Amino acid sequence: MSFFKKSDVVIIAVILLVSLAFWLVYDSVSNDRSVKAEIYYYDRLAETISLDGSEESTFSISQNPNVIFRVDEDGNIAFIASDCPDKVCVNTGKIHRVGEYAACLPNGIILKIVPEGDRDDDDVDIIL
Predict the structure, then answer these.
(1) Which of 54, 86, 108, 128 registers the highest number of CB atoms within 10 A of its CB?
(2) What strands lie across the sheet with 35-41, from one edge to the other?
(3) How is domain 34-115 classified at the architecture level of CATH?
């Protein structure tokens, strides 16, 4: 008695191929758009940073200067230092695609990537 039938393997392969196709289409569409980073302190927008990749910079927000961000020349942004006890935000790494986010919950800071310009109902809110 076998665990998989041949039809099971075919169905799984088709599902994987369709998933891969959707992911490739989304990836190609999302990379062509210019993006910006929005930094929220609790529920208020604290700062908006353009991720056009013009220059590298390090900064913090006035509400909590102990949390430091870095914007790279290639358009990535990341937490690089925080005074929180667990450092999950620092270990999140660089983000750059629409819908990606990082959070420092002990400090109440959320960093999310959104499209540049006006938003549309079809835009991605968050990628999990």
Answers:
(1) 108
(2) 44-50, 35-41, 109-115, 101-104
(3) Sandwich (2.60)
